[in-house]
Design goal:
globular, Mannitol-specific EII, Chain A, about 35% helix, five-stranded mixed sheet, single chain, alpha/beta
Length: about 150
């Protein structure tokens, strides 16, 4: 059985960032604290955002590193930050920032699971209304299923 990519300790129900770059740094710090990435990974996440926006729609952005940064990933993991006030993400409103670190291309399956959850407006509403990190984890539990 594989290790979970998301734990309640990797979820912040009330993020503190007020802009895109700070939100990426907040997401990266969670990945670092989880032992998933090295300090250098944040630079690759910021570089990816310069190349192309990671805004996905339905209030969601999924910042992640570039291919050049794959050696800074120690294990696959997610960070999840929800914001009370929408962040401006290249002219789009973002309330959820999901940082991804995918070891050995593990991010593709994780991305797919996140996309399915966020394609359902009812699920997005439940995530907006969730009271705690544990409640959010219960709603996102599918990301940990192999």
């Amino acid at each position: 059985m594989s290790e979970n990519v998301l734990d309640a300790s990797q979820i912040i129900a009330n993020g503190s960032a007020t802009g895109k770059e700070d939100a990426i740094r907040e997401a990266a710090a969670i990945l670092k604290a989880a032992g998933a990435v090295t300090d250098e990974y944040i630079g690759y996440m910021l570089k990816r955002e310069e190349l192309t926006s990671t805004y996905m729609g339905n209030f969601l952005a999924i910042p992640h590193g570039t291919n050049e940064g794959k050696d800074t990933i120690l294990k696959s993991a997610l960070s999840f930050v929800r914001y009370a006030q929408p962040l401006d993400w290249d002219g789009n409103e973002v309330r959820f920032v999901v940082g991804i670190a995918g070891k050995e291309n593990g991010h593709m399956e994780i991305l797919s699971k996140i996309a399915i959850i966020f394609s359902d407006e009812d699920e997005v509403q439940k995530l907006l209304e969730a009271h705690s990190s544990e409640d959010i984890l219960a709603l996102l539990g599918e990301v940990n299923e192999a």
